[in-house]
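Subject line: Sequence and fold of a protein, written as structure tokens
Enclosed: The protein record, placed directly beneath this head.
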Amino acid sequence: MRFTILCLWCIVALLSSVQAQRTAVYRFENSFEEESGKLPKLKVLGQEGTFQNEKLPELKNLQRTVYVFDRNCGLQFDNRAANGFLSGSYTIEIYFRFTTLDSWKRVIDFKNRKSDNGCYIFYGKLNFYNFATGTKAPVNPNEYTHYVVARDARTNQLKMYVDGESKVEFTDRFSQGIIDEDGMLNFFFDDLIVKDEASDGAVAMIKLYDYVVDPASIKRDFQLLEEKISQPLVVNTPTPVTPQPVVSPPLPKETPKENTPEPAKNYTSLDNKNVSVGKAIVLQNLRFAQSKPELLPESSAELENLFKFMQEHPTANIELQGHTDNRGDFDLNLALSRQRVEVVKAFLVKKGISPSRITGKGFGSSRPIANNNREETRQLNRRVELIITKL
């Protein structure tokens, strides 16, 4: 009987903790209102900016409304009006861009302008002044950044992420990452201690959680970012191409002329018309064993063609990027995508190409180019892409 009561108590406690988890979402669709209408709208700090329609290049040129703000003109979340929504444990997720990134640029202020401490971007690096600075982050001027700060009250650990990857972690012993007695959380607005530490820019989404989001979920949030911030009418779902997978850049749709040898090729064209610095090309005929970093025999022509390209362009440097579909464990897929890139690199190095000319990254399932709901389109996401970094 006691055991049954204890089990029931644990279930009730668990359900209560789940129900207590809340989220506030601001999408800036011509409004500062919170999506559910249950939490206060954001207050403009400084001169009010404008709502504009922008293309987001990092999300396949998705077009949507964003809020554009001037230098040192930010936004404020009133935590008192929200009845202490954010306390010791929380997560803050922002998708935004800064126009300039020279020196210090304020992102989040927990002390309502009374302290110089808080979240910055410092020459492209994540920084929580004056406690921790990360390694160089993928933050560039005028490029949207997926920026996350999470704090755990049990351990006082504060973590900062960019594009799903952890960049800064430290123990916040002095509660610098907690909103003070004023109850205000400021975004993009400089403090009164040191001036000229702000940038103009734009924001597409702010999302606040009253709990700690785990690292794996933050990765998935970045993976699903296009879906999270897009308006329903502008989501473009790639359609399958039959019989050949989608190639980047696309092949002409016209029927090939007679005696044209192109259809018989079992490797991706890397001639001067198709390659340029920074352009991603899917190596469509690289084939791997299921869930393994092992190349299948039918990949040989594609590999030899890539080797030939490197031979004929001795000054060229490349980056190989591995991708998987979304089936299976996220972290295992991430590791698999990296391993497959290393296999392709090892082939080229064994053939005599200098390893210094080849870099590699694995993205797992975080960057699909097709719908993962059906196998005929899901297979297009299992790919290796080639990017020329120097020609």
The CA atoms of residues 320 and 386 lie 5 Å apart.
